[in-house]
Amino acid sequence: MHEALKRAIRRSFEAAAGRYDESAFLQQEVARRLDDHLEGMMIDPGLILDAGCGTGFGLSLLKARFPRARLLGLDLAHAMASQAQARQASGPGWRRLFSREVPARLLCADMERLPLRKDSLDMLWSSLVLQWVGEPDTAFREAHRVLKPEGLFLFATFGPDTLMELRAASADLDGHQHVNRFIDMHDLGDALVHAGFSNPVMEMERLTLTYEALPGLLRDLKAIGAHTVLENRRAGLMGKAEWKRLADNYERFRRDGRLPATYEVVYGHAWAGRKDRLEDGRQVIQFKIEQRKAGKR
Predict the structure, then answer these.
(1) Which helix (H) or strand (E) holds 102?
(2) Which of 13, 53, 146, 251 is the most exposed place for a label (fewest CB within 10 A)?
(3) What is the pLDDT of residues 5-15, one digit of tens each?
(4) 264 phi and psi, to 5 degrees?
């Protein structure tokens, strides 16, 4: 991803961190559903990374499911990691004093350049972060690098039909993109295999939020730092006439008195498998050569 776009994403989430949880009901629900995908998996990870931990909601789910595990939380925005740190420190003082739980270690870093050693993690969790890394290949290769052989990679991200109503309503405004583009589930599965993962499993569902009016949706998107960050985004603000056209266009989606906002949520998991591939995807094949000594005649 272009560094300027990455800086814009960081600034967006830095600004949103303080009040993020007030509007992150969809993000928290997706994290709960991602946690449900762990049901029935016979795993006991020792070290888990939450890549893109935000304010720490996913870390609390992971601690509840794997109380003996050591946790790492990582986020591109320092303010988000700080909120996750504060979440761990909240609660009754006596509970913190007598608890034997080891708090998660928080890191401010890039998911595409993980500051971790090769083969150091048992599990990598990422909920609604991959849509911000552009093409997933680099992030997937990094995930595969830091996972131990047979380590688990579990993630949720948004698919192409996310905010399809807003995309359609803004299509004829000014020739600029107003909604981020999201990667298809099948392309994500192919990228996992190319990165060296084995047995990928992909699932998809659509979740719909409803609003009385368009400003409510736009306020929520801004509050969670999810307003558009695109190379082709408009530089200036829209005028009154364009805002009215956007609102009028969106009205054609109104059902039962409410405006829908659709989110296509993609869930995926895969295993690191054997570490016998190079970074470019080529497989290393080892040959065993036996040496024989010549006998006497």
Answers:
(1) none
(2) 251
(3) 888 889 989 99
(4) -90, 115
